[in-house]
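Ticket #499: bound-state structure for alpha-L-arabinofuranose.
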Amino acid sequence: MEAKMRISRDYRISEIDKRIYGSFVEHMGRCVYEGIYEPQHETADPQGFRDDVKELVAELNVPLLRYPGGNFLSGYNWEDGIGPRENRPRRLDLAWKTIETNEVGLHEFIEWAEEVNSEVNMAVNLGTGTIDDARRIVEYCNFPGGTELSELRKQHGREKPFGIKTWSLGNEMDGPWQIGQKTAEDYGKLAAQAGKLMKLVDDSIELVLCGSSSTEMPTFASWEAEVLDQAYEYVDYISLHRYYGNQENDLSNYLAKSLDMDFFIKSVTAIADYIKAKKKSDKTIHLSFDEWNVWYHSHEETHNTEPWQVAPPILQDIYNFEDALLVGCLLITLLKNSDRVKIACLAQLVNVIAPIMTEKDGRAWKQTIFYPFQQVSDFGRGIALTPNVHVASYDSKDFKEVPYLESIAVLNEEQQELVIFAVNRSESEAINFEALISEIDVTSVIEFSQMSGFGIKDINDKDCERVYPTQSQAITLDDDKVSATLEPLSWNVIRLSIA
Ligand code: AHR
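RESOLUTION: The complex was predicted; output attached.
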């Protein structure tokens, strides 16, 4: 099969916001406890956080972490997690039917995030929480001093404000599973008032409003229109959440599911712009795709887990090679929409539907999906360029005209690199790929990294890494033309040096 991509400096989509490579840490399952935090572990630092996990998180290169949930958030009181650890309450977490010990709270998490070079996207509870709780946490975190809450922060060891810039107004408030679920009108009004108070405390913060929990929600689209109608003035982003799975074991359909993500993004963009027009506003609302990933492998085990444990092993999806290919397609889809998607969070970071897994008292290791995420976060910085691609397409069970090649180019002028990310969705045919590059002076090939040739269900585990990128030599550079062979079912990263 042949594929031709035209690349030009003029085909600019947008400068990529680095927060598009965010992830998510929820107090659930083994994400915090036995994930990032395990005081008895041989690599634990004085605060109880595992150094081996910190190293992997730093390697993954995650500039933003959404915290502390998730469904957990909607029953959580942030004040349970501050002050001396010995005074902190053990609580029932009704969202996941577990016990929360509160050993890790706001200070410990933010300081851990600073160590791994991430900003925090702090979420406020709008399930059981009030607008005053939302105001109080902003004051506690961001106000310099001289008030009860800012002085309390100092007493707890943090002199300088945390300076949290990005805040989320609740979590999945449309879902019947959510503690304190609300109608769109009620949530929109509450979020507007919470947002108003939060910005009165600190007008430099940015706020994310809850959109739908997925495109499959019966209220999808009307929810977005109503909540934006209520809260437009106070917010900066609207959230999207979506998880995918290959329950039917239909590979060509599974790899096409990034087209659903594209549809979701385009739909929410259209609704946000409709409300903008309705309000005759000059403000544009951007998108925060703050939960996305593959999630389906662990459904049964999670269902059969005993309730009321501390850190039970739930949502521990073990990812295979086909999942890594879909994650590659999803990352490219986010980049294609980077003019509107400014924040995105791979859900989650450790152990819970995560790229990083840990064993209690043992190793930390990389899942298959670690690699495409890491490579796009490392090299997908700069300007996303419209993928002008000619390639054949196919129809799958749920999608029409699925291109065999999913791809995008990113121009990183600071690093003097042009980078192409590409997935070949074909199960049987290699793609003879040609990139015709104009207005950019390409001087050499830095590397052609590829994940291909694995069994489609191959996984990594703590003792054996089977699926990882390797270097390919199947590439040539001829003036302004790059030619490369993209193997069937492959994830590809081509890095070119530019003058
Ligand atoms: O990421 C797992 C869960 O998925 C989150 O808690 C919730 O927001 C979503 O439904």
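RESOLUTION NOTES: The chain has a mean pLDDT of 97.
TICKET STATUS: resolved
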